[in-house]
Design a protein that fits this description.
It contains 8 helices and 23 strands. The chain is 22% helix and 32% strand. The strands form 6 sheets. A 7-stranded mixed sheet has the order 6-9-4-3-15-17-16, with no helix packed on it. Strands 19-20-21-23-22 form a 5-stranded mixed sheet. Strands 7-8-5-12 form a 4-stranded antiparallel sheet, with no helix packed on it. It folds into 3 domains: 217 residues, Immunoglobulin-like; 89 residues, Zincin-like (2-Layer Sandwich), CATH 3.30.2010.30; 112 residues, no CATH class. By secondary structure, it is an alpha+beta fold. Helix 3 crosses helix 5. 47% of the residues are buried. A hairpin with a 5-residue loop joins strand 19 and strand 20. The protein is globular and about 65 Å long.
C-alpha cells in the first residue's frame, strides 16, 4: 500500500492506517547490556521507538517481560528474573499477568501514523534451570529475556499468560541494534548479523544488527565454534559446549545448512544472512528464535530441521502463538517430515482426540485444559493433516499454496482463515469437507 509521508515537527505522520491494524509497529530496539563475570546477570538500557499503526490514538503500550513467566513475581529473597526501572517517555504502572506485562501510559495520546519512544533500565538474571531462559553448566541461554512490545489489534491488547508447554508469544517484526559487553572468554551467539570488537581489558563488545525480526535472543559461554556457508550463501555459525557429542554436532551442521537452502527454495529465500546453531548435551529438545536456535544434542542428532523451519513458520510468517499454535508448530513439523522423507500415508488418526470440542486449531488456553494432548495433536496430527492436504490438492499445488501463503504474509501475521483462503484459491476442489474432517476450524 502506498503511503504519503509528511514531516510534522519532530514526528512523522502517514496516510491514516485502518482503525483495527495491529500496533505498535515498525519498532526499533536499541539495547546496550553489560554482563557479569560468567554471563549470569546482564544490565543496561533499552530504548524502543515505535509507530502507531492503528487509526485510533494510542494512549498506552505494554512491554512483555516473558523472562518472568516461569517464576512470576518472585519473592523477597529471590526477585523477578527481569526487572525494568527508570522509565522515560511514559509512566510505568504495576506489573500484571504474573509480572510478564508492564503497562506504560504515554504522556499524551499518540496519533495515528506518529512515532514516539520509551526507554528504561533493564536487569536480567539468568535462572539456574535448564530452559530457554536459563543455564546449563557454564552456558547461559537468554531466550525471551529482553522486554518487547505487546500487540494491540482488533481484539484489543494481547496480554496472554505465559505457558511452559508451547509458547504464548505474539510480536510484530522490528529492528534490533544490540550491543552486548561481556568477558572475552565467553562466546556470544545472537540474533542478527553479529560482529565483535575489543572493549575494556579482558572484555569484548558483540554487536548485533537484526532487521525485521520478532524477538532477539542470545547465549553466552565458553563454546567451541565452527562456520559454514550453504550453497545458497547463508552463513551458518555453530556453537557447542564441550561434551556435546561430536557426531550430533556434525549432523546438525550438515542438516541445518541443507534445511536452510531447501526451505528457501520451497517457501522463499531466508532473508537474514546468518543463522546460529547453539548446541549443548542436556538442553531439552529445541527452541527457535529469529536467526538463532537452541538445541539439545545427542549422538543421534537434534531437532535442527524443525527449528530451522520455524525461521519461516513464526519468524517470517508470523502468528499469534497463544491463539493459533498449530500455524507454527504443525507447519514446522510438516516441513521437518518433508525434509526427512517421512511416510505420512494413513498417519492421520480421526479417533485420536480428547473430546468433540478439540480442534487442530485450538488455542494454548484450550490445550492447557487438556494436559498431555498438545504435543500429540499439534506435533502429531497437525503435520499429518498438512500431508493429507498435499495428497488432496496434489504436491505441485501444495507447493504453490505454501509459497503464496508465505509471500502474502512475509514479515506479517497470518491466521488460520488466511491459510484456508490461500489453499482454496489454488484448487477447484471444495476444501470445506477437508477442513471439517481434519478439525481445522
Amino acid at each position: 500500500m502506498l503511503s504519503l509521508l509528511v514531516i510534522v515537527g519532530s514526528g512523522v505522520a502517514e496516510a491514516a492506517p485502518e482503525a483495527t491494524a495491529a500496533t505498535p509497529d515498525r519498532a526499533r530496539y536499541d539495547v546496550t547490556l553489560r554482563a557479569d563475570s560468567d554471563g549470569s546477570h546482564w544490565s543496561g538500557r533499552e530504548r524502543v521507538s515505535f509507530r502507531n499503526a492503528s487509526g485510533q490514538p494510542l494512549r498506552e503500550v505494554y512491554l512483555r517481560l516473558w523472562g518472568n513467566g516461569e517464576d512470576g513475581c518472585g519473592t523477597s529473597g529471590s526477585p523477578s528474573a527481569v526487572t525494568v526501572s527508570r522509565v522515560r517517555g511514559g509512566t510505568a504502572g504495576p506489573l500484571g499477568v504474573g509480572c510478564t506485562a508492564l503497562r506504560i501510559t504515554l504522556p499524551r495520546p499518540l496519533e495515528s501514523g506518529r512515532r514516539t519512544t520509551v526507554s528504561f533500565d533493564v536487569s536480567l538474571t539468568v535462572p539456574s534451570r535448564n530452559n530457554r531462559f536459563g543455564s546449563e553448566g557454564a552456558f547461559r541461554f537468554l531466550g525471551n529475556a529482553l522486554p518487547v512490545l505487546a500487540v494491540h489489534d482488533a481484539t484489543g491488547w494481547h496480554l496472554d499468560p505465559y505457558v511452559s508447554t508451547g509458547e504464548s508469544f505474539y510480536a510484530l517484526t522490528g529492528d534490533f541494534q544490540v550491543t552486548l559487553d561481556h568477558p572475552s572468554r565467553l562466546r556470544v551467539p545472537a540474533t542478527g548479523r553479529t560482529s565483535t570488537r575489543p572493549g575494556e581489558p579482558g572484555r569484548t563488545l558483540t554487536h548485533s544488527d537484526a532487521r525485521r525480526v520478532r524477538d532477539f535472543a542470545w547465549a553466552a559461554g565458553p563454546f567451541r565454534t565452527a562456520e559454514d556457508t550453504t550453497p545458497g550463501g547463508v552463513r551458518i555459525r555453530s556453537y557447542w559446549a564441550p561434551g556435546t557429542p561430536a557426531k550430533g554436532v556434525r549432523m546438525a551442521r550438515r542438516d541445518g545448512a541443507a534445511a536452510v537452502d531447501q526451505f528457501s527454495a520451497e517457501f522463499g529465500d531466508y532473508p537474514y544472512g546468518e543463522l546460529d546453531l547453539v548446541m549443548t548435551p542436556q538442553f531439552g529438545g529445541g527452541m527457535e528464535y529469529p536467526g538463532l536456535v537452541l538445541l539439545g544434542t545427542t549422538e543421534e542428532g537434534n531437532a535442527v530441521v524443525h527449528e530451522v523451519a520455524h525461521q519461516w513458520w513464526y519468524g517470517i510468517v508470523g502468528n499469534d502463538e497463544y491463539r493459533t499454535p498449530w500455524l507454527d508448530e504443525s507447519f514446522a513439523q510438516y516441513a521437518n517430515g518433508r525434509f526427512y522423507g517421512w511416510d505420512t500415508l494413513d498417519c492421520w488418526d480421526p479417533e485420536g482426540w480428547p473430546d468433540e470440542d478439540a480442534a487442530l486449531t485450538s488455542s494454548m488456553a484450550d490445550w492447557s485444559r487438556r494436559p498431555g494432548w498438545f504435543q500429540r495433536v499439534v506435533y502429531g496430527s497437525g503435520p499429518c493433516a498438512l500431508a493429507d492436504l498435499e495428497r488432496t490438492v496434489g504436491a505441485a499445488t501444495m507447493a504453490r499454496v505454501l509459497k503464496r501463503y508465505a509471500a502474502d504474509h512475509w514479515y506479517g501475521v497470518a491466521t488460520t482463515a488466511d491459510f484456508k483462503k490461500t489453499a482454496q484459491s489454488m484448487t477447484d476442489k471444495d476444501l470445506t469437507p477437508f477442513w471439517e474432517s481434519h478439525r481445522i476450524r
